[in-house]
Automatic annotation (TrEMBL):
This is Ankyrin. Keywords: ANK repeat. The keyword Coiled coil does not apply. ANK repeats lie at residues 139-171, 174-206, 208-240. Pfam families: Ank, Ank_2. The keyword Phosphoprotein does not apply. It comes from the Eukaryota. Coiled coil: none annotated.
């Protein structure tokens, strides 16, 4: 093992030298020489070699150096530089270019093989995207999601033009589709564009996530919610697995009166008496047997069945929001209550 780490020292040396040269604004000829030295040794064969230098060239807006480095460095590599812990910030060079809204840099990287559907952020961009509130911060983000978060419609259009999937598969820690994210942060132009490109309006959400309408309702974006409903969004779509919320429940929990009244309009078909079933695992922690394992601890699954109205009240009560509770009750009295009375009369 020690031989392995000793064998990495020359490789790191060339990466460090290349990075420092870009950082210092060295001439193109100097960088070319360093690249030749790195390629003549083991450094040039590492997948991430030159990625940190590539990020620095992006930050410096040095497009000549960027074009040179993009030919040899991985646009999706993460490379640690000695003495500069901040450099490994879990955003790859392609993600960096998008985060800085550098259209030219994004074009250069795409030309040299950057993947428009790639995962580019691995630890969140909360401090870099001010449009995102705490409850909606994401850790793992694709190129499209980063472009949406920074509000760059031009880059979103470019990525889609180059093959980015507007209905990209959720998983591997990616918790939002592009449309769900645009609706959540309230970018109407982005929502309109993505739907025009074939984004599925009621795409099944990830665990604890939501449909585009549910997320718009949670955030109080009534204009987007209305637009989604006009395009066929289901106001009674079931909640996501885990801590999911139906659209009306989300609006009630976060006290979004405009959204609640929109959803309650007769033509929307809101079903407040609709029963919602959620599943919880009941864990038996009473066993002290030394031979028991984790698989023995799950005693049973409990099914919680409540109406959408009951859940909306419960979520508003949990936040101690009396105004929201009264709005929910008022809406139910005019809509949900009538439905209950009709059912009881049969």
């Amino acid at each position: 093992m020690m031989e392995y780490f000793l064998g990495q020292e020359p490789t790191n040396k060339y990466s460090n030298e290349l990075y420092r040269a870009i950082q210092a604004g060295s001439e193109l000829a100097t960088v070319e020489l360093l690249l030749e030295q790195g390629n003549s040794n083991s450094a040039g064969h590492r997948p991430q070699y030159g990625s940190a230098a590539l990020k620095m060239a992006i930050r410096n807006e040095d497009y000549d150096l960027l074009k040179l480095l993009a030919r040899v460095a991985d646009a999706h590599g993460l490379e640690q530089i000695e003495g500069d812990r901040a450099e490994l910030d879990y955003v790859d060079p392609f993600g960096e270019a998008i985060l800085l809204e550098d259209y030219e840099a994004v074009c250069i990287l795409l030309k040299h093989g950057a993947n428009p559907d790639a995962l580019v952020s691995f630890w969140g961009l909360t401090q870099s995207t001010p449009r995102v509130v705490d409850y909606s911060a994401l850790d793992r983000m694709t190129a499209l999601l980063v472009a949406i978060d920074v509000g760059s419609l031009h880059i979103v259009q470019l990525l889609v033009e180059r093959g980015a999937d507007v209905n990209s598969r959720l998983g591997m820690g990616v918790l939002r589709s592009p449309l769900q994210r645009a609706a959540e942060i309230g970018d109407f132009s982005m929502v309109e564009f993505l739907i025009g490109q074939g984004a599925l309006i009621d795409l099944e959400p990830a665990y604890g996530g939501g449909t585009a309408l549910q997320l718009a309702a949670m955030s109080g974006h009534v204009g987007i919610a209305e637009f989604l409903i006009e395009r066929g969004a289901d106001v009674n779509h079931p909640p996501a697995r885990g801590p999911g919320r139906m659209a009306f429940e989300a609006a009630a929990e976060w006290c979004r009166p405009d959204v609640m009244y929109l959803l309650a309009q007769p033509e929307q078909g809101l079903q407040l008496d609709l029963e919602v079933t959620t599943e919880f695992e009941i864990v038996d922690c009473s066993s002290d047997d030394e031979g028991s394992d984790d698989s023995d601890m799950v005693d049973a699954c409990h099914l919680d069945v409540r109406t959408q109205y009951e859940r909306a009240i419960a979520f508003a009560e949990a936040r101690n929001d009396h105004a929201s509770i009264e709005i929910v009750r008022s809406i139910y009295a005019s809509i949900g209550g009538r439905l209950s009375a009709q059912i009881e009369s049969f």
